[in-house]
Amino acid sequence: MYLITEYQRLKEVETNQYNLEWNFKRIISKANYHIHTDAVKNYILPEKNYEKDREWIVYAEEADLLNVALC
After folding, report:
1. CA-CA distance, 44 to 55, in Å (whole number)?
2. In the 8-state DSSP scheme, what is residue 48?
3. Number of H helices, E strands in the chain
4. Which of the two residues, 6 and 44, has the higher pLDDT score?
């Protein structure tokens, strides 16, 4: 009986620790999300010429289709 209760206690401690770690990672990623999106909006998007780059999408989609068909 002691072994079962000790096992349950350890699983509860492990679960609580996992939830705490998971919540911490979630909060950090939530805070970093705005930093990342602002960096993309301010530095990467202005450097790209999407009108010119968009013409390659047709070729990329066709290549993807061929890769799926061949695999």
Report:
1. 19
2. -
3. 3, 0
4. 6
Torsion of Cα atoms, 32 then 38 then 41 then 43, to 10° = -90
In angstroms, what is the C-alpha Rg of the chain? 24
Residue located via tokens 């999106």: 37
Return the domain boundaries, the chain.
Answer: 2-70
The Cα–Cα gap between 28 and 61 comes to: 35
How close are the terminal C-alpha atoms of the chain, in Å? 55
Return the DSSP state at 43.
I
Q: Has residue 5 got a pLDDT over 70?
A: yes
Segment (H or E) for 54: none
